């Protein structure tokens, strides 16, 4: 007889209650205009393919364990050294390392709404998460963050899903008033946000987290990095998988990072498309947050001029039926009347706007 094992009751109690992160839908089949996961609409630098192909020939050998070349190149770009840089298997990997190393029993803090992975990484470590709520203005509540003074506070800037960026001065005013770690998740900063990286010179309790998934067009590769004091990097390295980045990913990320001309051109194209799309949404008379990211968070109005959760859901469903996939967040009062649209190519955004116009006429 087969020996049985009831995984759900034998898992550690906090894991039994855990909900896995729900990533945006990856639709199967052809013909989708996919504007739901903030991927870059453009492929990575052509130099990535060359670099990756060369590594294929080396795959019998383990990768260099600390991604040394990549750390050095990134460190130099930011006026730091490789001891200030850690590379992750996606920035999600780094958020998990930070949680495992530094979040105490009181839990981490985060603003709400923001990136929905923070509750998941906190849960994986059996830690809680304390909310600092936004109001509709989406202004940073420095007093509330200072009053909480958690061991770790996650701040997304530009924020997700709104695209609203916070200034270096605002971030410095938080850092002045806490003694825990402030993690500034700059996944979208290359599309127009102000980086808090210069503040690393003055504040040892700051970690800047970045990703190659958005501005470098490498979401499929899984590479992220963080900049921090050497002491923090040293601690994070103790819990990092020894070979957390494969050979191809290290070479691909380095090639993408060094092709600055290609990078600048692609980012500029995305920003130009975002602003054109925004102007069209303004023309519909919709409220849209000012975005410094490769997305727009907009509050649709139907043909009768009505907005609200039901209108946003209707539009989301209509677009999906037209094979235009955007993101809808029904779970929070500040997000449920909005849709989040990732910035695609000009052609993709035209398809999105045409579908919206058709909804306005027919719905
Ligand atoms: C704010 C934020 N941080 C991090 C990530 C994930 O980045 P990565 O693909 O490097 O894990 C995302 C992805 O959507 C994000 O929105």
User: Cofactors and ligands present?
Assistant: pyridoxal-5'-phosphate
Number of domains: 2
Q: What top-tier CATH class of the largest domain fits best?
A: Alpha Beta
> What integer is the average pLDDT?
97
Helix content class: 25-40%
Rg: 21 Å
* Silhouette: globular
How many alpha or pi helices?
A: 13
- Please provide the ordered H/E string of secondary-structure elements: HHEHHEHEHEHEHEEEHHHEEHEEEH
Molecular structure report:
There is one protein chain. The chain has two domains: 12-42 and 261-362, Aspartate Aminotransferase, domain 1; 46-258, Aspartate Aminotransferase, domain 2 (3-Layer(aba) Sandwich). Helix content is 39%, strand content 14%. It has helices at residues 7-10, 13-16, 46-56, 68-77, 91-102, 117-124, 142-148, 168-175, 230-239, 247-258, 260-283, 309-321, 346-362, and strands at 33-34, 85-88, 108-112, 129-133, 152-156, 181-185, 206-211, 224-227, 287-288, 295-299, 324-325, 327-328, 339-342. A hairpin with a 6-residue loop joins strand 9 and strand 10 (295-299). Helix 4 runs parallel beside helix 10 and helix 11 packs parallel to helix 13. The longest helix is centred in the last third of the chain and has 24 residues, at 260-283. The protein starts with 6 loop residues before the first helix and ends with a helix. Bound molecules: pyridoxal-5'-phosphate. Residues 38, 90-92, 115, 156, 160, 185, 187, 211, 213, 219, 224 line the site of pyridoxal-5'-phosphate. Pyridoxal-5'-phosphate (PLP) is lined by residues 38, 90-92, 115, 156, 160, 185, 187, 211, 213, 219, 224.
């Amino acid at each position: 007889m087969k020996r049985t094992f009831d995984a759900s009751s034998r898992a550690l109690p906090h894991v039994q209650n855990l909900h896995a992160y729900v990533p945006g839908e990856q639709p199967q089949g052809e013909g989708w205009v996919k504007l739901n996961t903030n991927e870059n609409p453009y492929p990575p630098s052509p130099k990535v393919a060359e670099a990756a192909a060369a590594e294929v020939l080396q795959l019998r050998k383990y990768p260099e364990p600390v991604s040394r070349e990549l750390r050095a190149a990134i460190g130099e770009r930011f006026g730091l050294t490789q001891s200030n840089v850690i590379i992750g298997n996606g920035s999600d990997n780094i958020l998990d390392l930070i949680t495992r190393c530094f979040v105490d029993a009181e839990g981490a803090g985060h603003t709400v709404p923001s990136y929905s992975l923070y509750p998941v990484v906190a849960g994986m470590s059996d830690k809680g998460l304390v909310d600092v709520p936004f109001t509709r203005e989406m202004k940073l509540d420095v007093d509330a963050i200072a009053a909480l003074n958690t061991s770790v506070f996650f701040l997304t800037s530009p924020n997700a899903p709104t695209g609203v960026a916070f200034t270096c001065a605002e971030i410095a005013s938080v850092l002045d008033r806490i003694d825990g770690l402030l993690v500034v998740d700059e996944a979208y900063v290359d599309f127009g946000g102000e980086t808090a990286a210069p503040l690393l010179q003055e504040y040892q309790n700051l970690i800047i987290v970045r990703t190659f998934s958005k501005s470098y067009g490498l979401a499929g590769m899984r590479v992220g990095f963080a900049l921090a004091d050497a002491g923090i990097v040293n601690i994070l390295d103790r819990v990092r998988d020894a070979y957390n980045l494969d050979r191809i990913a290290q070479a691909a990320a380095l090639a993408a990072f060094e092709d600055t001309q290609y990078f600048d051109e692609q980012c500029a194209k995305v920003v130009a498309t975002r602003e054109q799309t925004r102007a069209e949404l303004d023309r519909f008379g919709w409220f849209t947050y000012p975005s410094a990211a490769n997305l727009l968070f907009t509050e649709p109005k139907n043909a009768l001029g009505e907005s609200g959760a039901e209108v946003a859901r209707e539009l989301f469903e209509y677009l999906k039926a037209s094979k235009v996939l955007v993101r809808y967040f029904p779970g929070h009062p500040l997000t449920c009347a909005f849709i989040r649209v990732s910035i695609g190519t000009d052609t993709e955004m035209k398809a999105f706007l045409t579908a919206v116009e058709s909804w306005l006429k027919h719905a």
